[in-house]
From TrEMBL:
Top-level taxon of origin: Bacteria
UniProt KW keywords: Membrane, Transmembrane, Transmembrane helix
Coiled-coil stretches: none
InterPro entries the UniProt entry points to: ECF_trnsprt_substrate-spec (IPR024529)
Keyword field contains NAD: no
Organism from which the protein derives: Candidatus Enterococcus ferrettii
Claim: Repeat is one of the keywords in the record: no
Regions crossing the membrane: 6-28, 40-63, 69-89, 101-124, 130-149
Any Pfam family the entry gives: ECF_trnsprt
Protein known as: Energy-coupling factor transport system substrate-specific component
Classification via Gene3D superfamilies: 1.10.1760.20
């Protein structure tokens, strides 16, 4: 990846988008996260490496300022950045949007579920922890409860994020110059 001022500016904008939307979702205790919209945007416009850099910077900044849990979930941002870049960068809409969102979601969900169970016993700062406890209270084991909620909330989150990013990219007539 070439390092140019427009590329660095785009990555900084994407990091800011992740931080603002992620903190908004955290503050409102939403069952979705919104902290990967910028990562998906950077990966779509600039490629997988930019998505990975955006995700890592976002997780580090958020982790040391507002939500310590973000540091632990940095590997999820890396998965999302990589998968988004592979599936969305310089690609025509050959696959359906829901399928792309699912393929972006799955690796990160597996990683996030393991982190949530192994490090936090199924409880994190997001609103989805309430859903995990309800399912666990119904007799489902903790790991399966986390995965079931995680796949649902992650997929909804990524479907929304990918939809927003694709709409934004279509509205940007000259973004290819930055991504080249």
């Amino acid at each position: 990846m070439k390092t140019t001022a427009p590329r660095l500016t785009m990555i900084a904008l994407a990091v800011t988008l992740n931080i603002v939307l992620g903190n908004l979702a955290l503050f409102l205790r939403l069952p979705i996260y919104l902290d990967t919209v910028g990562t998906i945007f950077a990966a779509t416009v600039l490629g997988p490496v930019a998505g990975i850099i955006t995700g890592l910077c976002s997780a580090l900044f958020t982790g040391v300022t507002t939500d310590l849990f973000s540091l632990y979930f940095a590997p999820v941002q890396l998965c999302v950045g990589f998968m988004s870049g592979v599936l969305l960068h310089n690609k025509k809409a050959s696959w359906s949007l829901p399928l792309k969102a699912l393929l972006i979601t799955l690796p990160g969900t597996l990683v996030a579920s393991l982190i949530t169970v192994l490090l936090f016993g199924g409880i994190t700062s997001s609103g989805s922890s309430l859903l995990v406890q309800v399912i666990h209270g119904l007799g489902v084991n903790q790991t399966l409860s986390v995965f079931l909620v995680q796949i649902g909330t992650d997929y909804l989150d990524k479907l929304l994020a990918v939809s927003l990013v694709i709409s934004a990219v279509k509205a940007l007539p000259r973004y290819r110059q930055i991504g080249s």
